[in-house]
């Protein structure tokens, strides 16, 4: 979806369906656009799980620039972004940092069980490239390779 839309949309989904578990998965660039909504989930005690994939880049555009434009990066490095765990805590929202793939399942399971507003800051490698379609390409022209690691979710 559109950068910055995921977290506010998740808040709306939780208000509309309060009994459902709602998890918002965002890149750090998109989350920075709407991070003030942490105040909303705290103020209204909305147990939304905000997952922020932190690679300090505008991920999709950075990947395109890496793969299609010979690594000529322009305006896609986020530089000195905030510490997302401290940011969430400053709004009174619980937070945890995930640095290893094997930590994800436990953190997410715990967040669902706790049923509280929480931010899970998942640190990922900016060099990791996911499969994608180049501009104007058909689905059969996908580039990149997806590797599945067993028992690390």
Structure overview:
- Strand 3 (94-98), helix 6 and strand 4 (118-123) form a beta-alpha-beta unit.
- By secondary structure, the chain is an alpha/beta fold.
- It has a four-stranded parallel beta sheet, sandwiched between helices.
- The protein has six helices and four strands.
- The longest helix has 11 residues, at 6-16.
- The protein has a single domain (16-129), classed as Thiamin diphosphate (ThDP)-binding fold, Pyr/PP domains (Rossmann fold).
Task: List its salient traits.
alpha/beta, 6 helices, 153 residues, 34% helix, Rossmann fold
Q: Can you give me a brief rundown of this structure?
A:
The protein is about 35% helix and about 15% strand. It has about 150 residues and is an alpha/beta fold. Strands 1-2-4-3 form a four-stranded parallel sheet, with helices on both faces.
Set out the fold topology.
Elements: H1 6-16, E1 22-27, H2 28-34, H3 38-43, E2 48-54, H4 59-68, H5 84-90, E3 94-98, H6 104-114, E4 118-123
Distance between the termini: 23 Å
**Number of helical segments?**
6
According to CATH, what is the topology?
Rossmann fold
Largest sheet: 4 strands, parallel
Overall geometric form: globular
User: What is the CATH first-level class name?
Assistant: Alpha Beta
What's the CATH superfamily, by name? Thiamin diphosphate (ThDP)-binding fold, Pyr/PP domains
The CATH architecture can be named as 3-Layer(aba) Sandwich
Number of strands: 4
What is the helical fraction, as a range of percent?
Answer: 25-40%
Structural class determined from secondary elements: alpha/beta
Order of helices and strands: HEHHEHHEHE
What's the number of structural domains?
Answer: 1
Query: Which range does the strand content fall in?
Result: 15-25%
* Rg on CA atoms, Å: 16 Å
Unreliable stretches (pLDDT < 50, length at least 5) are none
Give me the side-by-side strand order of the main sheet. 1-2-4-3
């Amino acid at each position: 979806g559109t950068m910055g839309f995921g977290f506010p949309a998740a808040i709306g989904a939780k208000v509309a369906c309060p009994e459902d578990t709602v998890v918002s998965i965002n890149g750090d660039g998109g989350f920075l656009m709407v991070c003030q909504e942490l105040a909303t989930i705290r103020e209204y005690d909305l147990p939304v799980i905000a997952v922020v994939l932190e690679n300090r880049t505008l991920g999709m555009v950075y990947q395109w620039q890496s793969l299609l434009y010979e690594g000529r990066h322009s305006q896609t490095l986020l530089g000195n972004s905030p510490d997302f765990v401290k940011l969430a805590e400053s709004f009174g929202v619980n937070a945890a940092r995930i640095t290893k793939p094997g930590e994800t399942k436990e953190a997410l399971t715990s967040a669902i069980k706790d049923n509280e507003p929480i931010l899970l800051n998942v640190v990922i490698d900016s060099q990791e490239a996911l499969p994608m379609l180049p501009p104007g390409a058909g689905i059969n022209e996908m580039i990149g390779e997806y590797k599945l690691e067993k028992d690390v979710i």
